[in-house]
Design brief:
By secondary structure, this protein is α+β, with helices and mostly antiparallel strands. Helix content is 35%, strand content 19%. The structure holds flavin-adenine dinucleotide and succinic acid (SIN).
Length: 525
């Protein structure tokens, strides 16, 4: 037997997008924010470089717009970008008024440069802990709101959809299944970096929201566009810890294993070329020199400056026996961000009534084929806020007087897989995604990945699990398959999607690919 609970708004995920949405919907009704781990465990918490916003004296909203469009390589939704850059300043000022302490130079906010930004426009906090500061402020703000309840270690398993309307989700808490009924549900589950063996993303980023939405018929869009961050720490047995792009913004240089600088051979902007170009240049250089990594060299920068500007990176690298002030640091690309996700309009609406999405799980088209650095924390604030307003408008326009009498017959058989088998399947998936669906792809590699992932998908996709690792495996397999299918279907190279068998933007490249579930499997349209 499972317990039933009722709320006006259910928010799944407590990163920047979920928390910002909660603050808004909390003004209108009862809110439950569920999160599958500690409340802070999210990509938001680990975000380093900063948050982009056109607030400096030398900057303009129009220039931030142009830089975002350029990085997106022709596939941005211009309306969504306009909203991001023009509503961004208001969302940041609000955050500062709630207590966010961004770094300053004298009495003025300090802005740094990151790749493909033509102005210094990236705000940062405590040097390289920008995400932690934003998460802290949002959690504090949410804690003051009586209407908003938080449930940690509570995992969403599946969305409940009846007669085409999302009316909540099945949750898992300490092996108990809870039926949570809500008038509107906002997915804010973040990204899916964990489908790759080499990733900067924390363990919670397993694509759950995308897979849950797909299972109930939501459209997913632009799934082939995965951003690989150029500079994650590379050393056997050590996690792919991020070395922020802001380090290159402050002058750090990339060098190959012979100590030669190489970025100018690939792009006139050198180290500050768009992220997809830098990642591919690093891979080319690794292949050319037959090495597993390149180096990020900061030794020419002042030691105290480095320690103060990048305190978390300095101390974390030191923990792994690398001193950024004294030696070049081995780095190579790692999966970092997914530009695609659950398709939404500019108010977070999906094609399923009552289901909204915001943040990395969503695809408004704001990032196109390649995200401009430091635009995603801003996306979480701007689109978390907007999805909340979309959800309020929906709830206020519908009749919900009988929500407490909602029911959902839940009689699914619970399946079981041995823990060792789950771990094995998970690692195989992550490895094949990295090797065959990575920075550089081709029809052959994608075909091999598809066959392998499909065979796992067919074994587990229709099963119902209550073991969190098995639930994640099912979701990761679904998302891995959808990324691979989309990458196979896009027979051209755009932004972060690069195929050696179709190296150019060939006719038809402007078309976005959407995927939806069908009775026969799925359809790309
Ligand atoms: P997250 O912050 O990832 O939050 C997702 C939430 O959903 C978590 O609380 C998670 O536990 C929960 N969740 C997931 N699945 C379930 C489930 N089934 N049930 C319940 N809860 C669930 N972007 C920038 O703009 N600037 C940066 O400097 C920057 N640096 C980064 C550094 C790192 C190391 C990483 C990994 C990312 C960085 N990014 C940066 C990207 C940015 O941090 C993310 O895109 C953004 O924080 C995503 O916010 P979100 O709210 O959508 O998701
Ligand atoms: C970084 O600090 O390099 C990450 C910035 C981002 O992902 O936007």
């Amino acid at each position: 037997m499972s317990e039933s609970i009722y709320t006006d708004y259910l928010i799944i995920g407590s990163g920047v997008a979920g928390l910002r949405a909660a603050i808004e919907v909390g003004k209108k009704g009862k809110v439950l924010v569920v999160t599958k781990d500690l409340p802070t465990e999210s990509s938001t918490e680990y975000a380093q470089g900063g948050i982009a916003v056109a607030l400096s004296d030398e900057d303009e909203i129009g220039i931030h717009f142009e830089d975002t469009i350029k990085a997106g390589d022709g596939l941005c939704n211009e309306e969504a970008v306009k909203i991001l850059v023009s509503e961004g300043p208001e969302r940041i000022i609000e955050l500062i008024n709630w207590g966010a302490e961004f770094d300053k130079e004298g009495s003025k906010l300090a802005f740094t440069l990151e790749a493909a930004h033509s102005r210094k426009r990236v705000l940062h906090a405590h040097g390289d802990s920008t995400g932690r500061e934003i998460e802290r402020v949002l959690i504090n703000k949410v804690s003051t709101l009586e209407n908003v309840k938080k449930a940690s270690f509570t995992m969403a398993i599946d969305l409940i959809v009846e007669e085409g309307k999302c009316i909540g989700a099945l949750l898992l808490k300490e092996k108990e299944i809870i039926k949570c009924f809500s008038k509107a549900t906002i997915l804010a589950t973040g990204g899916a970096g964990q489908v790759y063996s080499r990733t900067t993303n924390p363990k919670v980023c397993t694509g759950d929201g995308m897979a849950m939405a797909f299972r109930v018929g939501a459209y997913l869009k632009d799934m082939e566009f995965i951003q690989f961050h150029p500079t994650a720490l590379y050393a056997p047995g050590i996690p792919a810890f991020l070395l922020s792009e802001a380090m290159r913004g402050e002058g750090a240089r990339l060098k190959n294993i012979y100590g030669e600088e190489f970025m100018k051979n690939y792009h006139p902007l050198g180290e500050l070329a768009p992220r997809d170009i830098v990642s591919r240049a690093i891979i080319s250089e690794m292949v050319r020199t037959n090495s597993t990594h390149v180096y990020l060299d900061m030794r020419h920068l002042d030691e105290n400056f480095l320690k103060n500007r990048f305190p978390t990176i300095y101390s974390t690298c030191l923990r792994f026996s690398f001193d950024i002030t004294k030696q070049p640091i081995p780095v190579s690309p790692a999966a970092h961000f997914i530009m695609g996700g659950v398709e939404t309009d500019i108010d977070g609406r999906t094609n399923i009534k009552g289901l909204f999405a915001a943040g990395e799980v969503a695809c408004t088209g704001v990032h196109g084929a390649n995200r401009l650095a430091s635009n995603s924390l801003l996306e979480g604030l701007v689109y978390g806020y907007r999805a909340a307003h979309g959800a309020v408008e929906y709830v206020e326009g519908e009749r919900f007087d009988k929500i407490s009498s909602y029911d959902f017959k839940f009689e699914t058989k619970i399946s079981h897989i041995e823990q060792s088998e789950i771990i094995k399947m998970r690692e195989e998936l992550r490895q094949i995604m990295w090797e065959k669906v990575g920075v550089i792809r081709c029809g052959e590699s994608l075909g091999i990945a598809k066959d392998k992932i499909l065979s796992t998908y067919e074994k587990i996709a229709e099963k119902f699990f209550i073991n969190p690792l098995a639930i994640e495996l099912k979701n990761m397999t679904t998302v891995g398959l959808l990324i691979t299918e989309a990458a196979l279907s896009r027979k051209n190279s755009v932004g972060a999607h690069y195929r050696t068998d179709y190296k150019e933007k060939l006719p038809g490249w402007e078309k976005h690919l959407r995927i939806r579930k069908t009775n026969a499997g799925f359809e790309i349209f």
